[in-house]
């Protein structure tokens, strides 16, 4: 049986990824901080003919990560695919910023990716796949989003170095940089941006999407399909790479 671990799998992009990777003879381990969201995703996974294991996990907490991976180890002999999707957003200018908030973003988005890799890699089968979710803000900077940009740039650096560490085991490590994706996190980000500019949310959304050449928001399922490809046998020769899925917002 193929075993897949998806963090942040309770909603948004993570939920779409867990569902996309669900198939008969597959165990999808769905990790998140919110039990109710986990249960909903697990039900969807099971409807696709896969087995589902909901695991409550806070990726920023080393003990929670260790405990969650220990739970997974009791249900599977090895992990074939690890998707580090869990993350938080938030923006604030550096001058007068809140240290706790800055640290929360780094701890979840970057340290969390490291902690899950650290616990899951010993369980991974030779020839496995790791896919890390970065962001287009891992490609360029945006004023007022220093913590988020730093964390997502860091995920790309981690991905490249880890790909070299694991090449000898034929484990590939790649990153994905989504742009604006139709999720609750994006909606919250647009609301915060609109508030900061003193405009209504629809006006902010229109302005944000005007910078996207295809002039529309990305759907979570589109990101999930790219993850599915990178987790497939067809991507065996791809490692240490970063892929944008942003409608042309970034071409680096």
Could you characterize the architecture of this molecule?
- This protein is of the alpha/beta class.
- The chain has two domains: 2-180 and 218-245, Rossmann fold (3-Layer(aba) Sandwich); 183-217.
- It contains eight helices and seven strands.
- It has helices at residues 12-20, 35-47, 62-73, 99-120, 146-166, 184-197, 201-210, 220-230, and strands spanning 2-7, 26-32, 51-56, 79-84, 124-133, 172-178, 242-245.
- Strand 1, helix 1 and strand 2 (26-32) form a beta-alpha-beta unit.
- Helix 3 packs parallel to helix 4 (99-120) and helix 6 (184-197) crosses helix 7.
- The mean pLDDT is 93.
In summary, what is this structure?
By secondary structure, the chain is an alpha/beta fold. The chain has helices at residues 12-20, 35-47, 62-73, 99-120, 146-166, 184-197, 201-210, 220-230, and strands at residues 2-7, 26-32, 51-56, 79-84, 124-133, 172-178, 242-245. Strands 3-2-1-4-5-6-7 form a seven-stranded parallel sheet, sandwiched between helices.
CATH architecture of the largest domain: 3-Layer(aba) Sandwich
Q: Roughly how many Å is the radius of gyration?
A: 17 Å
Structural class, from helix and strand content? alpha/beta
CATH topology of the largest domain, what is it called? Rossmann fold
First-to-last CA distance = 38 Å
The CATH class designation of the largest domain is Alpha Beta
Which whole number gives the mean pLDDT? 93
Low-confidence stretches: none
Describe the secondary structure blueprint for this structure.
Blueprint: E1 2-7, H1 12-20, E2 26-32, H2 35-47, E3 51-56, H3 62-73, E4 79-84, H4 99-120, E5 124-133, H5 146-166, E6 172-178, H6 184-197, H7 201-210, H8 220-230, E7 242-245
Parallel strand pairs: 1-2, 1-4, 2-3, 4-5, 5-6, 6-7
Helix pairs in contact: 1-8, 3-4, 4-5, 6-7
């Amino acid at each position: 049986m193929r075993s897949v671990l998806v963090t942040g799998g309770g909603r948004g992009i993570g939920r779409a990824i867990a569902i996309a990777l669900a198939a008969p003879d597959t165990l999808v381990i769905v990790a998140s901080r919110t039990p109710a969201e986990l249960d909903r995703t697990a039900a969807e996974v099971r409807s696709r003919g896969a087995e589902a294991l909901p695991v409550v996990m806070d990726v920023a907490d080393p003990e929670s990560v260790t405990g969650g991976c220990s739970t997974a180890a009791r249900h599977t002999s090895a992990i074939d695919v690890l998707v580090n999707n869990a993350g938080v957003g938030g923006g604030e200018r550096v001058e007068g910023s809140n240290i706790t908030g800055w640290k929360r973003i780094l701890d979840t988005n970057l340290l969390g990716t490291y902690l899950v890799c650290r616990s899951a890699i010993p369980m991974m089968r030779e020839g496995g796949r790791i896919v890390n979710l970065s962001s287009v803000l891992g490609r360029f900077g945006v004023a007022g989003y220093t913590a988020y940009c730093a964390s997502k740039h860091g995920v790309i650096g981690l991905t490249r170095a880890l790909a070299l560490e694991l090449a000898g085991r034929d484990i590939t490590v790649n990153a994905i940089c989504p742009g604006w994706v139709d999720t609750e996190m994006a909606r919250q980000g647009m609301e915060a941006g609109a508030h900061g500019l003193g405009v209504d949310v629809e006006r902010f959304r229109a302005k944000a999407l005007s910078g996207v050449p295809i002039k529309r928001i990305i759907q979570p399922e589109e990101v999930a399909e790219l993850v599915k490809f990178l987790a497939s046998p067809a991507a065996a020769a791809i490692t240490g790479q970063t892929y944008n899925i942003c409608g042309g917002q970034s071409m680096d």
